[in-house]
Amino acid sequence: MSSSLQLLIGFPDCISIGTRNAPESASWRIVVGVGILWALILGIGILFMPESPRLLSLAWFNLTYL
Fold first, then answer.
1. According to the model, what pLDDT value does residue 1 have?
2. Quick one: which of 40, 33, 31, 38 has its CA closest to 13?
3. Measuring CA to CA, which residue among 12, 5, 7, 13 is closest to residue 34?
4. Is 60 within 8 Å of 51 (Cβ atoms)?
5. For the whole model, what pTM was predicted?
6. Which of 1, 47, 54, 55 lies at 20 to 30 Å from 63 by C-alpha?
7. Residue 30 and residue 42: Cα distance in Å, rounded?
8. Residue 33 belongs to what H/E stretch?
9. Tens digit of pLDDT for each residue in 8-66?
10. What is the crossing angle of helices 26-47 and 2-18, to 10°?
11. Under 8 Å between Cβ of 16 and 31
């Protein structure tokens, strides 16, 4: 868990350091763009996640005992 947190904190810092010498406002725009891209990837990916076993068992329980 600790290493995941360090990765989430360190990755944007690496991007920020890498774009320091970008011309004019491109440095912060690249960092924001990467953040938006990552959020879109996660948002689209969650649509393809299967339902959890707990949710499926609750749905089955509710259907059988109605």
1. 55
2. 31
3. 12
4. no
5. 0.59
6. 47
7. 18
8. helix 26-47
9. 777 777 787 888 888 888 888 988 888 898 889 888 988 887 777 777 777 766 666 55
10. 140
11. yes
